[in-house]
Amino acid sequence: MAQTQNYKITFFRSLHSEFLKLCTQRIITVSTVLAVIFYAGICALVVKHSAAGIRHFGMITDGWNIPVIFFLIMGVGAVTSEYTFNTIRTTNLADPSRTRNFLAKTLASALWALGVGIILEAVCSAVVYITAAKTAPFSSADARAFLCLLLAGIGAQLFTLGLGYLLRSTAGALALGFSLIFLLSILQIIPLKLLRDTLPPFFPGNLINYAVSSAPAGQLEEIKETLQTPDCAPQTALCIFLAYVAVILVIGWVRYRRKDV
Q1: At what angle do helices 11-24 and 26-49 cross, to 10 degrees?
Q2: Residues 115, 118, 161, 90: what is their CA dihedral angle, to the nearest 10 degrees?
Q3: Which one-letter DSSP state was computed for residue 7?
Q4: Cys-Cys link to 211, which of 47, 92, 148, 159 (CB 3.0-4.6 A)?
Q5: pLDDT tens sequence across 153-165
Q6: Rounded CA separation 104/113 (Å)
Q7: Is the separation of the CB atoms in 99 and 187 below 8 Å?
Q8: What CA–CA distance (Å, rounded) separates 200 from 220?
Q9: In this structure, are residues 182 and 205 in contact, taking their beta carbons and an 8 Å threshold?
Q10: Quick check: 116 and 32 in contact, CB under 8 A?
Q11: Of 203, 210, 202, 205, nearest in space to 145 by CA
Q12: Burial class (CB in 10 A: 0-12, 13-18, 19+), 169
């Protein structure tokens, strides 16, 4: 009995196990390294080959779609790799509570995305500071954009995590995730007011693009006129995107709980 109590299943032990899985999965580690190196290199090239002048740290968030791609890949890999190598059965045998498994993997993935996002922004900021001839002081608008990019990265990873549980297919989850975030605006070619004017401001990609804007508060109105964005603050746009993520996670959790592995 004492031995059973010593190895009693708890949420934090499940969380520790899920975090160790992320550390040992090649798709996760390779995507993490590539995200940092690739995006830092792009920031350096943009600063070096652009016109001379004062560089703002907010430029780091302008290319948000590049790191988001890697977050999408990591979210899918965290789930579908277990189905691919059939280790999901071992996971369920080690901890029979599928809800606890799901929450542990979700939190572990969110913490991983948080760490990657912080490292990414720190490295890119250092690159811009070193390569730029002159940089503007780090402003509150830059801080807001950095925070929104960090949360958008976490949301993107959890977005495909939920899709991975829902579809149980790496290709399927990635294709659907990419389509919903980057390709949904193609629907605007259909000559319907609903698809050209009403819905586009609430497309996930447009919400993220508006949320990570580093423009000062006085210029946000101009951005709303040039981009298809909802009539709200950038933080509210981010919250709408995170609400989409929550819905996908709930659907994935229901699928995981009710279906056999």
Answers
A1: 60
A2: -10
A3: T
A4: 148
A5: 999 999 999 999 9
A6: 14
A7: no
A8: 18
A9: yes
A10: yes
A11: 210
A12: middle
